[in-house]
Amino acid sequence: MKSRSLFRRLALFFGFAFLYVPILSMIVYSFNNSRLVTVWDADDSPTLKWYRALLSNDQILGAAWLSIKVAAVTATGAVILGTLAGLVLARFGPFKGRTLLSGMTTAPLVMPEVITGLSLLLLFVFLEQLIGWPQGRGFVTITIAHITFSMAYVTVVVQSRLATFDDSLEEAAMDLGARPAKVFFRITLPLILPAILSGWLLAFTLSWDDLVISQFVAGPGSTTLPMVVFSKVRLGVSPDINALATIMVMIVGFGVLVSALYMRRQERRVALEAQMARADKH
Amino acid sequence: MGERQASNAVEGVGPPRPVDRTNEYVRIEHVTKRFGDFVAVDNVSLTIFKGEIFCLLGGSGCGKTTLLRMLAGFESPTSGRIFIDGQDMADTLPYERPVNMMFQSYALFPHMTVEGNVAFGLEQEKLPRSEIAERVAAMLDIVKLKDLAKRRPHQLSGGQRQRVALARALVKKPKLLLLDEPLGALDKKLREATQFELINLQEKLGVTFVVVTHDQEEAMTLASRIGVMDRGEIVQVGTPTEIYEYPNSKFVADFIGSVNMFEGRMVEDEPDYVRIETPELPCTIFVNHGISAAPRAAVWAAIRPEKIDIAREEPPGPDNRARGVVRDVAYMGDMSVYLVQLDGGKMVRVTLPNSVRQLSERISWDETVWLSWDASSPVVLTQ
Amino acid sequence: MARSQVRQPQKPPIDAWGAGRLGLIFSLFYRYGPPRWSQYVRQHWSGQRLVIGVPFLWLFLFFAVPFIIVFKLSFSEVRLAMPPYAPLIEKVSEAAYAINVNMGNYAYLFTDPLYTSSYLYSVKVAAVSTLFCLLVGYPMAYAIARSTPTLRNVWLMLIILPFWTSFLLRVYAWVGLLKTDGLINQALGLVGLGPYTMMYTDFAVYIGIVYSYLPFMILPLYSNLEKHDLTLLEAAADLGASPIKSFLRITLPLSFPGIVAGSLLVFIPAVGEYVIPSLLGRSDQLMIGRVLSDEFFANRDWPVASAVSIAMLLLLVVPIVLFQRFQNRELAGARK
Question: Which residue range forms the structural domain that includes residue B65?
Fold first, then answer.
């Protein structure tokens, strides 16, 4: 018994060390004074100079701002389209073209991104020749491409949420006289709201993180943050990227912590209330 | 209520509640529902009268729920027509029907309070707010949930949720209330109490109920009439007494309660009696009422376990008796079940109320006993 | 010919599968709800067309149509023009059209060793990385599944947490660790070992892939192991099996579905992986995703790039179909 729990502890220890040491090393070295990333300059560290360098780098700031804009529009568009698709697939039963729709929503999940990027670029080129839209490539084309691949994820999230609650809730609402649109806004939407929120965040992250598709469909002058980072990183290690990574890890870590605490409080409240209900039945 | 014996269906049948057969309310005409190749409901015709509790009883997959959902409007019949209060329902959507449903899962909206759930249906009718509040309060009073109005579904016990679901459906004053396994999610004790609450409520409000259940005891207690369904068809419609005492087929006899079935041939077929010969018994079965069947046709005589007498002494007469050995005795508290193997090898089930407490007198394992029954007890079935 | 040379692309290269792959995990645990209420309403309610139509049209225009274009283009001839390919159906004169179906692009993939070797190399890298992933992920998944429920959630959150941070930056972190003067070699130097060359080797690519894809191995394995009935192990012990024996005879066979799901989830995207090999990998041997983007950006040979995409999809179709069939069987089994 003892040896097995020791084995489990070792597995977890080394596993998490493997996952987190690289991230921690970036955080630590973001405060390093030396330009040589792997040499710790004990005299002048820790320092915030890479953060200052990062925040005065107009190229990075501009790219970050573009990425935020693209990600926000993408997340919103993907949530709208993905929710509709998820609703249709989970609740609308068989209809003509259902197989095609379900294929088109799941295929982007396994489609290599190079292919998605290549095919979208070809479409934009083709459309521009044909109808003159979209003129050039940039914000619009990146956003369209991002919506297309991230809505698949939202669809799956919404679908799986819809599958966890009984559709008799919607039937009950209809039975009580609510028309379909009303049923959606009064019953379905409030119930899948958590899924929609996490779908929004997921789509935002996917868009924010995407390098491949953006490279295909971005035009000159529209460079997203991952594209800037990639070109810098390819030239070798650069300490201000460590600073950028640290900021991103902090934001994500903080967000996850807050939501975990919130969820725990919520769970406790529900458990407590259920206990109360059991105590005073009849 | 206490004298109703749950384990013995016959005692559960009270005096049949009167059914007003003049006031036809729901008419189902030759309704068929197919899902692909599967026929869920097969050419069902049925009439339900105003103010009755009609139970659709059957095993899982027999089509009872599909029939109910067609009444609610969630499924449309493949063929056939449904009339409610004289109106053809073919083009009426679920949210336009004067029908409400209580779902098996209750389907309470988890993000709304008890009050919100009950008010939801009235809000859809665009009633003035004061009237909604009034009717909700009145309804919550009826189902004794006034104190819990601000709670949410997950803060309620199973029985309370059931009452919210009922209140939510009834507050719209539907012409017809559909109940899908209304007591299925409750434990046994609560179920018995709730059955009578449901009947009282129905009598008070006068709403017509259509109940779907797989539980024959529940159907017996609740229903003014029962429709037994099997494989998409209605096999028998009648009051609980009719269904239990005069089943029209082997399926119904077997499905409702338990029964001993003797397969045989008619040897005498007179207007006022019949005599059946069966290889499973040394004597013939004498039945003191006539039936309509072809002479020498294969028939089944069904005898309920509680209608068979068990004794150590040989009963008189040539007919309706058999000798056997007790193979098993199950003591159920209020009664005992004996499994008797006849000399011919057939196993027969006999139940006896434990009205005396003297253990020594009881018939026990491996005793040789005589079984006998009254000439009015067997039901002769031809299918 | 210039094609076979190793080229530096002008544009930065491409990751064939990109960042957020969490969705696949979700689809793993997804079950279709019974489509019911709408059955009736659909026939009568006019809004349904809009609800179906909007996502349908979007996906059709931006997913299906582009794919058809790629397919069509893979049969075209390259031209020095913008766009640099010959149309499939060309107007020769007022009355005549020429259909230019050109199988040359596909024939080319088979004749030029660059393509076959990079296909084989991609499969090899993906297979080896999948195996390493399994070796690292199984013990972790096992340990998490046997923890207390509270700890379990903490561990799972820690597994998923890196996913919300940038994929690119997480791969980049390994550059600082693996370099010849990097942290790992510095640490090894303290005990008198090394320095070893680790950057720009297959080893670095394996590390990068295992690191990036580990959660895809752990989550399906965990969800399988967590469902195991522990009384089975008690029964095995009761019947005299040693812990190791009962692991090999009971736990391992029962977790087979999780192993398959996790392995395919790692293998499929790893075949098309791009960012990892181009940051950490060799420069003398390319993976197929890189070849595609070089063909497109550096050579501007759109038809061949399209043919490479189609060939790459064909390569992935087998594991993808395998994966889906396996999933369906699992779902069917779970329903019983």
Answer: 2-98+174-253
